[in-house]
Amino acid sequence: MDLDIDLSGLEATLLAAVRMTAFIVIAPPFSYRAFPGRVKAMLALGLALAVAPRVSPGYESLATGPFVVALVLEIVVGAVLGFLVYLVFSAVQSAGSLIDLFGGFTLAQAFDPQSMINGAQFTRLFQMTALALMFASGGYQLIIGGLTRSFDAVPLGLGIDLADPVGLMANGVTQMFLATLQIAGPLCVVLFLADVGLGLLSRVAPALNAYAMGFPLKILMTVMLAGGVFLALPSVVQNLSGDAADLLMGVR
């Protein structure tokens, strides 16, 4: 029995799997370490098989040397795309860091080996909430859709023009800081005004030792007002998912 193997299609699928794997290792929510590496590999292979009909037509088999170069290029492309998505969703983590800083929670800073985050309670809580909302709202589907459409903008084995990703990274950093201030800004302003009020109170009545009262008061205010921030997180995560998909499709 003769078995015909389409080597061109097999190479195209392999290159697509390499790009998918590099993307999944870096981009949230797939990069979360609670997902076993075997599951990530199966997901990357499944996505590569899904996009095989898109990338196989027109692809020609390469020699050994050019094929190795194409593999390296696909790793670079997948890593760049994953970093763009990571940069967008860093806004939620940065917002939690700001709340920890202004609320006095940074003394309880710890390292989370699952999400690879070094932060206090709200930093890790916001990160876990963003991951849960991405799966609950289907935001990960937008990211996967943007990744599959990236094969049209950046064909297999052709590499990537670094001018576009650098510009997108600069824009992503700007959007990250803007989203961070939009999420945590109101609560940080309230906590800053509380510090100002305690400072004025210590000047008026030094015997009250207002700064000793400030730590439990600010923690209480942070816990009470953080619920309002959580109400805004679903819409924020949805917008960030759309921004991440736009960045993936904007790479040339």
Automatic annotation (TrEMBL):
| Topology class, membrane | Multi-pass membrane protein
Report whether Phosphoprotein shows up as a keyword of the record. Answer: no
Location in the cell:
Cell membrane
List the Pfam families.
Bac_export_1
- Report whether Membrane shows up as a keyword of the record: yes
Q: Where are the transmembrane segments?
A: 12-32, 39-55, 67-89, 125-144, 176-198, 210-233
What are the record keywords, sorted?
Answer: Cell membrane, Cell projection, Cilium, Flagellum, Membrane, Transmembrane, Transmembrane helix
Signal sequence coordinates: none
Q: What is its main location?
A: membrane
Q: What is this protein called?
A: Flagellar biosynthetic protein FliR
Upper taxonomic lineage: Bacteria, Bacillati, Actinomycetota, Actinomycetes, Micrococcales
